[in-house]
Structures are given as C-alpha cells and as structure tokens.
Design brief:
This protein has 397 residues and is an alpha/beta fold. Helix content is 38%, strand content 16%. The protein has 2 domains: 28-156 and 290-366, 3-Layer(aba) Sandwich (Rossmann fold), CATH 3.40.50; 158-285 and 377-391, Rossmann fold (3-Layer(aba) Sandwich), CATH 3.40.50.2300.
Length: 397
Amino acid sequence: MRRRATRRFIAAPAALLALVASACGTDSASVTANDKVIKIGAWYPLTGALASFGIPEKAGVDAYFKSVNAQGGINGRKIDWIVKDNAFDPQQTVQIARRLIDQQGVVAIVAANGTAQSQATFPFVLEQRKVPVLNALGGDASWYQPARVGLFGLQTLYEDQAAALGDWVVRDGAKKVLVVHSDPAAFVNVAKQIAPAAHKADPSVQVKRLTVKFQTTDYSPVISKVKAEKPDAVVLILAAAEAASYLKEAKLQGLTTPMYGYAPVAAQSTLTLAGTAAEGLRAVQLVKSPNDDDPAIKEFRAAMAKYEQKQPADFVTLWGWEAAKAFVEVARTIHGPVTPESLTRAYEHARAVDTGVGPVLDFSAEQHLGTRDVQKVIVRNGRWESQGDFFTPPPRD
C-alpha cells in the first residue's frame, strides 16, 4: 500500500483576487483570472541536445491536461497550457517568461523543465511579477531552504536520491561500496552524499569514489579499475548513455557486482542502449514504474495511447503526467478566481496530494518541496519494475 494513499487532500479557501495593479505594474495583480480558462505556461527544450527529455516530458503533461479538459476542466474551467521552446538556454528562458506573463497573461508557470533555466527567471517571475512557479522538473536545495514565496516543487532532490542509495546498498549487505561518477561538479556533489548515508546505516562500511571524465565512451579501463577494487556494490551517478556504456563493458568483462543508480539512470534509454547488460540493475526513481499494473499507472498508459501516441509511456512522460496531475489536484480546491495569489495560497495549504503515480505530497507555508521520497525500481526481463512502496531516505547532515 502506498504511504498515506487513503488520506484526502485538504486546502483552505483561495485568496481573493487583487483589486488593482500597482502603478509600476510589477506585481501579479495585473495577471487577471478568467472565468472560463486557466491560462498557465511552461518552457521546454524541444530542440537541441536535451530535446530527448523535453519532448516526452511535455507529452506527459499534455496527455493529462487533455484528459482533464475532455472531462470539463478544473471546476468548469479549461486549461490553456502555453509551452515555448527554450532550447535549454537560460537567456532564452528569461525572454520566454516575459512573453508568457506580460503578453499572454499566464497565472502560473507549471511543470517547466530545467534547473539553471528556471532559476534564471526567478528575479522577474517570482520577485517582480509575483507569478508562482509550480512543479518544475529540476531544482536544488537552495530553491527550498529557506522557502521562496510562490516556488513549489515535487521532485526529490538528487542529494536525497543519493542518500537513499547509500542506505539501500548497505541494507542489501554491502560492506565495500564503489561510487562511479562523472567529473562535473553536479555529479560530484551527488556522489558525495552516498558515504554519509551508508555510514549511518553501518559505520564500518567502506565507500570509495571513482571519477570518470564526462561523456566517456570507452569504459574498458573504468571496469578494470572497478574489478581491482573488488566492491560488493557499485553505485552509478552517470548520465543514462554513460551508465549504459558502463553496463555493456561490465558484462563484456564478466563483472557481476550488483549495480545501483539514481533517477537519471533509471530511464528507458538505459535499457535501449544497454540491452541485456542492464538486467538486474537497481535504481531509485521519482515515480512508480510505467510498466506497473497499478490503476493510476494504467490510467496514464491509456491517456498516452489516446492523446500522445507518438511518445512512449515511460518514466519521462510519467514525470510530466505527475506534475500536471498534482497541479490540477491543488487547483481544484480553489473556490473563486484562479490567480497567482490564490494558487500560492492553495499550495501553502495543500496536504496529502495523492497523484497515484508518485509519492504523496505535503506542502505548507514553510515547506515548499512536497516530498523527499523515492521509489525502488529494478530491471527484470528487460523492463523496469517497482519494488515495494515509496520510502524516505535518511536525513542528510
């Protein structure tokens, strides 16, 4: 049973619509509500190297919003979700944010993609125009500690994913753990979180790190180094393509050490590229496996088949679906105009938001990241399967 899945979502009545805009036009009161449409916006890398993530995630959001609109919308209001291609560029994203708010009048940015890209817009979107940014894919601890007005998320931070992995490998019996990670700081910072979590579970565990140059394609020497260390478990903090290269070379060299990965490793692309070499790979994910027989997952697959036939029902599309569904669940509690103010207030009072596909979310005025939970998944017979329920990793120091 999913954690607290039987609890209902409770929210306070929405804030009243602000009466007038300020003389300089820098508050959100000039972003007005519409009785028939809820106009929201987002940005995605729909072209360029990261389009392989942006396009399917957008499709997942689209599928859910289309299914809601087909049933009458949110309290009788249809969703108008306006999406712009930012090519994963922060400067372009700032210009997109200005157009979405000043020209198209969106009341919120919902389910947008990218950490640096979204963060570049915060001075204008959150501080100047006071338009909320909700359920973005990406983010780091600085987004939520302390809480920022109007910024709410549902993606468990990479550092917490690493803490979950450190705890998991030790509880599986590992005494010598090797973390294989890329060399950019973003990967290093995540990899460093594994040892403290492992030592909390068992102070005697040895944890070492092996740094690999980013975008390495020849993993033969890497596997040789791993074999020399003789670890009981290997944790991969790599991009999906590089994780696949690791897995294929490990199989070629006969390395059978159990392997674990964080959410970026738990991708369909890893299986496509690694083939049978991925069998048995364990990882943590932000959502359930899209292959599960859970009713909420079946609903997701059916909607993808109906509304977004060109995109597979995989983890990335499910991330988008979850973000869209969480927004709708919160927005439904607003009795009155849906405005930047009423959305912010609704999120501050959102409790036990249950999308059915991800962890149950709790927000408050002080807590703007809805969860730290993750889901264990494992590759069996060439596909990802969920293991058990969502769980909370040990707290980080």
